[in-house]
Amino acid sequence: MNRFVTAERALRTAAPHELFDAVRRVLAEEYAARCVELYLADYGLTVLQPLSPSRAVEPLPVHGSAAGRAFGAQEPFVEVVHEESVRLHLPVTVRGDRLGVLTVTLPDGDGASGLLGELADIAEVLGHEIVVAERDTDVYLRARRKDRLTLAAEMQWQLLPGRACSRPEYELGAQLEPAYAIYGDNFDWSATRDHLMLYVTNGMGEGIEASLLTNLAINALRNARRAGIAIDDQAALADQAVYAHYQGRCYLSVLMFDFELATGRAKVVDAGSPQLLRLRAGVVERVEFEAQLPLGMFEETDYVAQDFQVEPGDRLVFVSDGVHAVASPKGEAYGDAALARAITSTRLLPAAEVPRAILRELTGHRGRSVPDDDALVVCLDWHGR
């Protein structure tokens, strides 16, 4: 039997919590692997956390390690250990969502290069199996944590669709900060054959209350979306759901897009404070929409969708007010100018890398590592069909 088929079958038949044992065993038996390690990216995207139960295996930095190089570039990276051994670092990725890195040490440096493509495919299969297995085990979610999540952050991360997604027409990347103590900011997306729907949410309040408000609003939007309702009516129904529960005491800002994949035409509902900046032909500009009321502020608000056109080559960067309005130690707001510089300086990075890079620059402006408010960055690269 083909070795790849054997590996794929071993992963598909393994118990959810035993995927790493299964891949380690089959790589040792079929590929003569001397060592196999699986590293999963932590919530802050700063370190790669080992899944290995051995305490001798240390976390690796995303920036400045061989495994981190494979993770960032999303390409296999070959590290020469010594003359008769090489270490292959293979991205573990599912449809653009970067989960981590599978590291395989092989005895024959010359023969290892011929196995690179096959082992990269096994790493991809492993990624798909991990996503499915997370429905039934906490092993992989626990491994991603270098610190303890607050309860509000736990609720928010479970609500997200992923941190990146790619299709021929577009690439998406997003990140939240503080990763282990996020309150109410959120993002959501869903794609069909012909459409991409994207929501960027700026939550109100702090802690559990902020998370509960966001959970209610996002699930109301999903409920309406999955019923096949147009984007302006999705906003109206979510508005009613939030108002019915909070009676106007709490409300939620959201920027909603329904992109037509074939043409780049989009319907937009701007219900609050998230900001959009566009990089087109090397020029960064802020995109303004007609501002409408946040969800849940008043009873039975009517929402009107506006038209928007995105062109192949456009990069759209969405930010919450925890990015746009954050102040420096001298009281200077980050604002459009600093954001434009950050977007320009990260123009060569893939969409999945951009949010974290912008948040790193924001930390420098803020002058301290812990923010006072949630910070959310979403990057959409539009390729078109």
TrEMBL record:
Q: Which InterPro entries match?
A: Bact_Sigma-Reg, PPM-type-like_dom_sf, PPM-type_phosphatase-like_dom
E.C. no: 3.1.3.3
Query: What is the enzyme's main class?
Result: hydrolase
The PPM-type phosphatase domain covers: 169-382
Cited Pfam families: SpoIIE
Tell me the GO molecular function terms: hydrolase activity
Query: Hydrolase among the record's keywords?
Result: yes
Q: Which SMART domains match?
A: PP2C_SIG (SM00331)
Q: Name the PANTHER family for this protein.
A: STAGE II SPORULATION PROTEIN E, STAGE II SPORULATION PROTEIN E-RELATED
Q: What is this protein called?
A: Phosphoserine phosphatase RsbU
What species is this protein from? Answer: Streptomyces cyanogenus
